[in-house]
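3.2 Worked example (two chains)
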Amino acid sequence: MRRPLRTLLMPPLMLLAALLMFVEEVLWEALKRIMAAVGKLPVMRSIEAWISRLPPYGAAVAFLFPGALLLPVKLAAVWLIANHHAMLGCQVILAAKLVGTALVARIFTLTKPQLMTLAWFVTLYNFVMRIRAKLYGWVMASGAWQRVEAIRAAIRAWFSRWKPGRISIRLRAIQRHRRRSAFR
C-alpha cells in the first residue's frame, strides 16, 4: 500500500518542490540585485559592513533573523485566511516572502564566507544544493520541460529576426508602401 501511494504522490510533489525552488531562485537573483542597490545608501553601507564583519555564529544569527522576524507576519496572514480574508492573507504572505527572500539573499551574500566556516552549515548547504540539483535534473529531463524549452527557442529565434536594425528597415519599407498607396 505504501509504495503505490508514494509512486502516485511523488511526481506532483517533486514538481511542486521544483517549481517553488525555481521561483525562489529567480526571486533570489532579482532581489539580490535590488538589495545590492539599496545597500549603496550610506546608512545601509554601515549596517552591511557591520554584518559582513560578524563572527561565524553571529553571521548565522543574522542569516536566520529575517525568517524569525517574518514568522509572526506569516502567522497573521494564516489567521487572515482562516477568518475569511483569503485575498489579503495571500497578499501578506506574498509580501512577506518577497521581503524575506530579499533580506536573506543579501545577508547570505554578506555572510557566506563566515557561514562556510561552520561545519554544520556547510553540511546543510551541500544537502540543499544536492536536493536542488536533483530536482532541477528531474524537471529538465521531463517532457514538459523539453516542450517549454522548444517553445522558448522558437520564440527567441522569432525575436532574433527583429533586431533593431532590421526593425527600422521594415518600418521604412512599410512607410514607403503607405506613401505609394496614398498616391494611387
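3.2.1 Second chain
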Amino acid sequence: MSVLTRVSKAVVAALVVLASSGIIAAADKHKVRDYDDTAGYSPDRAQNRLVREVRHELVMLPYYGVFDNLAYRVDGSTVTLFGQVTRPTLKSDAGNVIRRIEGVTNVVNNIEVLPLSPNDDQIRRAVYRSIYGYPALSTRYGFQALPSIHIIVANGHVTLEGVVANEGDRNITNIQANGVPGVFSVTNNLRVEK
C-alpha cells in the first residue's frame, strides 16, 4: 500500500470521526461571510474566530476534568470566564491561556474555586460512579476524553452541567445523582442537544 493511500485513508477516518462528534456540523452552523458588499471585512468573522480559540484553549487545559465546569462570554476583545473548578491552579491557568490569545485585551476571571472537603470528594466519586456506571449513560457519555456531563459538588449540593442527547438521558442522570447517599440536593442544569 502506498504512502499516499495510507494518508488518504487516515484523512477520511479523521473526517468521519469529526463528523460523528459534531465538530464539522458545529462549524457549518457558524459560517460567516468574509466580506460585506458595503463594509469590506466583517467583524463577525473575527469574533467567531475568537470564540473558537477561547473554547479550544479552555478544553485543552491539562487538569480540566469531569468535576470542573468552565464557561465564557466574549464581548468584543473582552473575555469573561465563569464556572467552578476543584483546583485553584485551574482558575489561574484558564485566565493565563486566554490572555495569550491574539485579539484578547481584557480577561475577567469569575471562576469559583470550590472549597476543599473530603466529604465533597467522596460525593464526587460516588455520583461519578452512579452516573457513568449506569449502562445507558456509560456507553454514550463515559468513553469520551472529556465526558459531556460535569459533576459539581459544593458543600454536599450537586449541580449537573453539560449536554446530553435527549430528555431521557437528562432524567436518568438526575435520578442517578439523587440516589447517592450524602447528597443534600441536585440541581440539573443539563442541556439537551438540538
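3.3 Remarks
DSSP finds seven helices and ten strands in the chain.
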